[in-house]
Amino acid sequence: LKGKKRKDTVCIVLADDSCEEAKIRMNKVVRKNLRVRLGDVVVVQPCPDVKYGKRIHVLPIDDTIEGVTGNLFETFLKPYFLEAYRPV
Question: Is 29 exposed, middle or buried (0-12, 13-18, 19+ CB in 10 A)?
Fold first, then answer.
């Protein structure tokens, strides 16, 4: 997807029969990344050369893990990402 000010992002496309032909649905995070608002025009292009990621580096923000004990990887990250197709 391409938005305003030369901003672009990669998204997963799903068909929706209840949406009109000339319109698309996107969530608030995608709109913020593209710097667009409801009703703005975006360009949708295929991107066949996107490779799967092999690893990512996740760093928690200090104030978000206060009071949380134990292994954060085993408790939160591994169940979320393991054997799942997740955008990062």
Answer: exposed
DSSP state string for 59-81: ---GGGSTT--S-HIIIIIHHHH
Phi and psi torsions of 73, nearest 5°: -65, -50
**Which residues, 6 or more positions from 63, have their beta carbon under 8 angstroms from its beta carbon?**
none
Model-level pTM?
Answer: 0.63
Whose tokens are 């975006």? That residue is 42
Helical H runs in 1-88? Answer: 28-34, 72, 78-81
The amino acid at residue 41 is: V
Taking Cα atoms as reference points, which of 52, 67, 54, 66 lies closest to residue 12?
52
- Length, in residues, of the chain: 88
Per-residue confidence band for 12, with pLDDT thresholds at 50, 70 and 90: confident
